[in-house]
Automatic annotation (TrEMBL):
InterPro entries: Tam41 (IPR015222). It is found in: Mitochondrion inner membrane. It is an enzyme of class 2 (transferase). This is Phosphatidate cytidylyltransferase, mitochondrial. The keyword Lipid metabolism applies. The gene is LOC115966232.
Length: 332
């Protein structure tokens, strides 16, 4: 990203209370996309959301739904995000400096847990796609490497023996949309394709180390295709499938173990770990897909209800209508 663009994105943070983490995601990262959103999307990580919202209400009360600002305050905003939603409060349609913004505020502990364990598979899914990190006081970029490795492992389990690099990134991108109810009526049917094609170079940059790692382990074979991407073939044997499952987050492995069974195993470092019992690659892929789909369905539903409560009916209808217009256009 150009220095000028980064500086412009950072300038919005000056009107908000300090944050420990900030990244920009979405169409702001691929300027060649003709379907650029009118809003610039941010994720903000803070140590204490209630304290942060209390300060932000004093600075930017107009960012919140009026009833929340006047009747509920920071405590209710945080409680709804935690108890009804998935720990994230979004303020959409924020106008500043002739531009429109949307920002989601999350507790740093919850962000780290989702990145490492896919407990909600919400923000972890966002961070599997390209983002521009603007503030990173706790080195989330490094922590997120485990999330990226898990994402490529999950995608490989769902892909055939041979595929293209674009197929791989599309499968990674689609993981966090499996089970998302919005995809049925309120999202562009070509959303995944547009994200991957619009940000292909950024996907390559993010996942190159893991492709090289898996190639070195002989799980993958990469071949140039004469274009900007590679053709990939993978080892579909049971041993390779077990290694891919072992790279999935603990929460996913635990739920797969409950369905398929598991055994205790002593590692080289002397730790006792649980290993999922896999009868076949197909069985593992099907089980993992069910786990992820259910997680996404629950999280997307909870967040939708939370958003409806916190942003107010008028703003919620406005946001949903914008989404549905894009969806309907994609079906024409």
């Amino acid at each position: 990203m150009e220095t000028g663009d980064r500086t412009e994105l950072q300038s919005f943070l000056k009107v908000l209370p300090p944050v420990d983490f900030c990244c920009v995601y979405g169409s702001a990262l691929h300027p060649n996309n003709r379907e650029k959103s009118t809003m610039v999307d941010y994720i903000l990580g803070v140590s204490n959301p209630e304290q942060w919202h209390s300060q932000n209400l004093k600075m930017n009360k107009n960012h919140y739904a009026s009833w929340m600002a006047h009747l509920g305050g920071a405590k209710l905003i945080t409680e709804i995000a935690d108890e009804i939603g998935v720990g994230v409060h979004f303020n959409p349609f924020v106008t500043w400096n002739d531009k429109m913004f949307k920002y989601g505020v999350v507790r740093m502990h919850d962000l780290v847990q989702d990145v490492l364990n896919w407990e909600r598979f919400y923000l972890s899914g966002r961070l599997q796609k390209p983002v521009q990190i603007l503030v990173d006081n706790l080195d989330i970029e490094n922590v997120n490497s485990a999330n990226l490795r898990a994402a490529i492992s999950a995608a490989l389990l769902l892909l055939p023996p041979k595929f293209t690099e674009e197929d791989l990134y599309a499968k990674i991108c689609s993981l966090s949309y499996m089970g998302d109810l919005r995809m049925l009526f309120a999202e562009d049917r070509n959303k995944v394709k547009k994200i991957v094609q619009g940000q292909f170079d950024l996907f390559q940059l993010n996942y190159k180390p893991f492709l090289e790692e898996y190639e070195a382990k002989e799980f993958l074979r990469l071949a140039s295709s004469g274009s900007h991407q590679k053709n990939i073939s993978q080892d579909c044997g049971l041993s390779a499938a077990r290694s891919l499952v072992n790279s999935l987050p603990p929460m996913v492995r635990s739920q797969m173990g409950m369905k398929l069974g598991e055994k205790k195993k002593l590692t080289e470092s002397g730790r006792i770990v649980s290993e999922v019992l896999i009868g076949s690659r197909e069985e593992a892929a099907k089980c993992m897909q069910k786990v992820l789909r259910r997680t996404v369905m629950v999280s997307s539903t909870r967040q939708a209800i939370s958003g409806l409560l916190t942003v107010g009916a008028v703003t919620a209808v406005r946001y949903l209508s914008n989404k549905m217009c894009k969806a309907w256009k994609s079906w024409r």
